[in-house]
Amino acid sequence: MLSRAADNLYWLNRYVERAEAMSRILGVAHRMSMQSTHGGTRNDEWEAALIIAGCDKSFALHGGPPTRRAVIDFLAFAPDNPSSIHACLKAGRENARAMRAQITSEAWESINAAWLEMRTFSMAKVEADGFSSFFDWVRERSQLFRGVAEGTMQRDDAYRFMRLGTLLERADSTARILDVKYHVLLPSPGDIGGAVDYYQWGALLRSVSAFRIYRQIYRDSIRPLKVAELLILREDFPRSLHACFAEIVSILQYLRESYRRDYPSVRLAESMLLKLRYDDIDSIFTRGLHEYLTNLIDTNIELGAAIARDFMQPN
Q1: Diameter of the chain by CA atoms?
Q2: What is the pLDDT of residues 104-118, one digit of tens each?
Q3: Which of 33, 83, 115, 135 fits as disulfide partner to 45, beta carbons 3.0 to 4.6 Å?
Q4: Could you give phi then psi for residue 175, rounded to 5 degrees?
Q5: Inter-residue contact 214 to 227 (CB < 8 Å)
Q6: What torsion do the CA atoms of 175, 277, 295, 200 make, to the nearest 10 degrees?
Q7: What string of DSSP letters covers 245-256?
């Protein structure tokens, strides 16, 4: 496949997945802010949302405190923020338009309709209608596009590069959403195990569509150790880091055999998968969950750069 085509298809799905991830980040911050114990004098949840999204420095350039309205406006609607929902859906639609010959008409119509509808939203409209309904709409549109693409596209290299984009972006967002609970929103000792702490973990599970699955697997009250295990190590949960990297490795190994070349990105992905396959949650917590997740996020960024070098840059 031509490197430019691979790049467009890969980023098409990364942008769509990033828009969904942003809606999930904002959704969990919104739920947590509703249960804030700070009496409205602090903005921990909204500072956390900016940090998770990697937008804290760019937000600071705009000036002003990280209030609920300011953060949602910046992460959802700011056209000059390349990670905002608005910017991601626009960029995804442009990539899809450039690749209309490579994707099905149904996939194109899905992303095009999402962008056209996104243009009708504004901060004032979302405030009036309710933030949660807007976040739900973004997730539904992302899932609709992904479902249409998976249900209509041939399983060729175009489809494989689209899946790589989805999986890398999903792994990144899962790690960042989990990290915020320990690094930024760690409760005071008196709150641990209390009603607020329980609600926050429940909100986190719902933000990655894992609340029901957690109940089915563990049949227990919500425990931080098990939540982390589900989101990091369980291969049978589709948004876990282990599940994402298992499929990433499978795709990259296929491409290596297909093109008969030894790609550094394949070796890096395989080493990441081995780490996730043989780690256990007790040792992760002993070494430090934040440090572990930060290392995974950094390595995931390195893997994305390696994939770009191997497949998306002209030889």
Answers
A1: 61
A2: 999 999 999 999 999
A3: 33
A4: -65, -40
A5: yes
A6: 30
A7: HHHHHHHHHHHH
